[in-house]
Amino acid sequence: MRLLNKKAAMFGLDARIALAIFGALSVITGAALYSAIQYSKVISAVAQLEEVTKACEAYLLDTGMQIRKIVEIDAGHANAAFGLYGNDLVSDSGVSGWKGPYLPLEHIGDGVLKSILNTLLGFVKIDVGVWGGATGAIACTVEKDCRIWLQMTLSEELVKNLDIYLDGSETKNTGRVRRLNSYPKILFYNTGIVYTNM
């Protein structure tokens, strides 16, 4: 009888050790899985940003023109910017040489497209200089400093992760990824394309 109790006690100890090991492994695996999911979201977003950038370049090569300006945003302010007709990339507006659609996205209205990431994708013409954080965007006054920026609303975590992935650090007002303190979920992405249609 005593021998049975010792065996039962040993079995109970073995089971507790095994459960502790499985618990620790599940925590480690869960953290690794979460990290992998976040990384895949970043890679997916980067792929879409690059696809839209290539679409803007293809449109320019085919038509000899850049996507059209809509209206000045915040006209008269130091932070004024121009919205751009992103729908030029998905529907023919009669421009000579158009060979689109350049993107498989839905046109929502006022130059805004519904992105693959299930968010709205806007196009703006903004200065490439230092801006962001609490100050906002800077209007283009010199052609060489003017770029096409993509604007998307994403989760705050994804915007920060994209900033770190693309710029190497989480800075709001320099690099290819910019954010505003008042709107931390809005991503501004510099396509690098100089906008010459001032």
Overall number of domains: 1
Number of strands: 8
Q: How can the largest sheet be summarized?
A: 8 strands, antiparallel
| Arithmetic mean of pLDDT | 77
General shape: elongated
Provide the low-confidence segments as ranges.
Answer: 74-80
Count of DSSP helices? 2
Distance between the termini: 94 Å
By secondary-structure content and strand pairing, the structural class works out as: alpha+beta
Helix content: 25-40%
Beta-strand portion reads 15-25%
Rg to the nearest angstrom?
25 Å
List the helices and strands in order: HEEEEEEHEE
Question: Can you summarize this structure?
Answer:
The longest helix has about 60 residues, at about 1-65. The protein has helices spanning about 1-65, 155-165; strands at about 70-75, 80-85, 105-110, 110-115, 120-125, 145-155, 175-180, 185-195. The protein has about 200 residues and is of the alpha+beta class.
Topology:
Layout: H1 2-63, E1 69-73, E2 81-84, E3 106-109, E4 112-114, E5 120-127, E6 146-153, H2 156-167, E7 177-180, E8 183-194
Antiparallel strand pairs: 1-2, 2-5, 3-4, 4-5, 5-6, 6-8, 7-8
Helix pairs in contact: 1-2
